[in-house]
Amino acid sequence: MTADSQGNDLDAVGVPLTGLAAFAPVTIANVIAKTDLGASPLVLPAEAKRLGLYKVDGGPAPARETGDAIEFFQKGYTLAGEGSRSVVITLAEQNAAVIALTEGAEPDENGVIEVSSSLPGNRFILYVVTRYRGGLEKRQIGVASVTSVEPDQQTRGEVEGIAVTFTWQEDELFNGAPFWQWGPAVPGTVIAPTGVTAGSPGVFNPAGAAAPASLAALQAAGALGQTTAWTTGQHIVLGDATQAHWDGDSWALGAAA
């Protein structure tokens, strides 16, 4: 992608073409490793159940809500309130996976579901993939739960959809994050990191950047924008699963002490 003289880049405009959503039980085996999130093709775990087609106007609609800010006696100081993130997808298929997800039950031997007035109290790993014009894809994975189910009114000759709200849940399987996101980027390409944000763990920038394979590879990448030593416990996870931190002069093995 190359911007023009005005700084604008048409190739960076997101024009969705298609996508998929799926869910699986909350187990470590169903977590797609960060190193595999940008693979081409993306391989979903064997236990993942796809949710099928969306309505044409029912693609993923993400939302981000933040609670009331905490104020202090002194004016001009606030702390951001607790936040939550969700995504609404209007599913078009009435397949077994959709029914199990929205009703929290499966048909008995007679093909009958004893429906409940309440939403199913389930948690699962959710996979949401969107493909854009130009070959870009955005891939999200995290623990979620269903917090709203709104069936369409039935209209003769039109697709009957179900608008399902998935609320992302912070979980240790994803290092306490609501979800992981890869891209938008072209799958199968390796994005070299241009920066690092310190944390426990920290993250490589830009989004979707691949972690250097080892400490030596990290050192070869340079400071990546670091100027001050990291504080106790801060670290970055490398491709070989080891940890490293910036000690003020160079990259060193392990978390900052």
Question: Could you walk me through the main structural features you see in this protein, from its secondary elements to its overall organization?
Answer:
- There is one protein chain.
- With 257 residues, this protein is mostly beta strands.
- The mean pLDDT is 91.
- The longest helix has 8 residues, at 96-103.
- Helix content is 5%, strand content 32%.
- The radius of gyration is 21 Å and the shape is globular.
- Strands 1, 2, 3, 6, 7, 8, 9 and 10 form an eight-stranded antiparallel β-sheet that branches. It has a three-stranded antiparallel β-sheet with strand order 13-14-15.
- It is built from two helices and 15 strands.
Concise summary:
With 257 residues, the protein is mostly beta strands. The chain has helices at 96-103, 215-220, and strands at residues 16-24, 49-50, 61-66, 70-71, 78-79, 83-91, 124-132, 137-151, 162-169, 180-185, 195-197, 203-205, 236-237, 243-246, 251-253. Helices cover 5% and strands 32% of the residues.
Q: What fraction strand?
A: 25-35%
Q: How is the biggest beta sheet arranged?
A: 8 strands, antiparallel
Reading the helices and strands in chain order gives EEEEEEHEEEEEEHEEE
End-to-end CA span: 40 Å
Please give the radius of gyration in angstroms: 21 Å
Give the proportion of residues in helices: under 10%
Q: How many distinct helices?
A: 2
Indicate the mean pLDDT: 91
Shape: globular
The structure class reads mainly beta
In terms of per-residue confidence, which ranges show pLDDT below 50 for 5 or more consecutive residues?
Answer: none
For the secondary structure, the number of strands is 15
